[in-house]
Amino acid sequence: MKQSKLFGKTLREAPKDEVSANAILLSRAGFIHKLMAGVYSYLPLGFRVLDKIKNIVREEMNALGGQEILMPALTPKELWQETGRWEKLKEIMFQFAGAGDQAVGLAATHEEVLVNIVRRYLSSYRDLPLYLYQIQDKFRNEPRAKSGLLRGREFSMKDLYSFHENQADLDNFYQQAIGAYQKVFERCGLISIVTEASGGAFTTEYSHEFQVATPYGEDEIMVCSGCGFAQNREICAFNDGAKCPSCAKAKLAQTKSIEVGNIFKLGTIYSKPMQLTFTGADGKEKEVIMGCYGLGPSRVMGSVAEVHHDKDGLIWPKEITPFHAHLLLLDNKQAGAADKLYRELTFASAKGGSASGRGWEILFDERVESSGAKLKDADLIGISLQLIIGAKSAGAVEYRFRDKSENGKVNFSEVDQLLKKFYR
Fold first, then answer.
1. Measuring CA to CA, how many Å separate 286 from each of 164, 270, 275, 412?
2. DSSP 379-405
3. For 188-227, what is each residue's pLDDT tens digit?
4. What's the chain's average pLDDT?
5. Is the separation of the CB atoms in 263 and 208 below 8 Å?
6. What is the CATH number of domain 323-423?
7. What are the residues whose beta carbons fall under 8 Å from the beta carbon of 3, sequence distance 6 or more?
8. What is d(CA 388, CA 180) in angstroms, rounded to the nearest whole number?
9. Close Cβ partners of 340 (under 8 Å, ≥ 6 residues apart)
10. Which of 44, 114, 314, 348 yields a CA-CA distance of 20 to 30 A from 253?
11. For the chain, which residues make up each domain, given as ranges?
12. Is residue 384 pLDDT above 50, yes or no?
């Protein structure tokens, strides 16, 4: 992609109506555009990052045995009444009258919708266990939508639901899901802390959150430096500096954090009122045991922006960087050589054989701008690897990693190998 053709522009000043680091940085760098509080459009750069996060989530959910589906966002009142949540969720659920005065709502979550589907197809213990997930926008009338992508009224959500024959099978899968979630966050450049928490308004009395420690976080958790025990401050009965209730050795430390995922053991809380049953091996009818596992790709994107940045801009981890490299032409005398390198890196071999490592995603800044402006924009956008062709390059390419871990110089012919070494 040539940067002169890229839709979206960088901003020199922070938007006046944004207060969170992620919203300021992502808006200034041209990743998102705010429509209203808690509602954002994803511009080309932002969409690329969001899509890469979703693909990582898909890979790990598929590895768990999950099957992807897509459910409607528009749902009928009658379905929610089966569990009593039409009234329970009315403070945060968008509810209104559709055609013919039918009461409908935009799904804040999808337990009822999926149970309604599954009860049509599941009959025997031989159909279990079953793992279904989707990646879709959710809608919640969030009263405090002032944290950019971290607290939205419309936001991307991956919700996985598991269906089991018994509690032991749920417990086993639940632990597998914890491992899968940790892999997702690690691949996105986040270190997650598995944290005990309440069930909130949606499900059971307790859950486990995945929190990322950062001074910019909205949440507060109590963490043991010894055994790793962690509990949300909202339910913790212990104060900062207290002895850990789990290992009884190390002390608890209060830490600011961002919640990036949440999982629940639902049991029969939805299968019972909605009559989701199966015939067991003994011939008896039994209620399905359920679990649900939420993870917000858009929230992960915002969290990465909060955690991975410096005074100059964003610093994207390599698995979710919008492009593999940002090629900067700072010396117009080398425009021909720079364009040739760009074409060689981005276009696969025309001979029908191996692409030899080509087909790289490159953002090529060939704009008629000053070198200073290009370098500032590159740091603000935060692509993991910068390739610089300037007057001092002396026929080579200067490279530097945005996280400042390494810099150097390579010949034009060695750039492909540099990319392979970093990404593969």
1. 11, 13, 10, 66
2. HHH--SEEEEE-TTSTTEEEEEETTSS
3. 999 999 999 987 655 567 899 999 999 888 899 999 989 9
4. 94
5. yes
6. 3.40.50.800
7. 363, 364, 365, 366, 367
8. 37
9. none
10. 314
11. 3-310, 323-423
12. yes
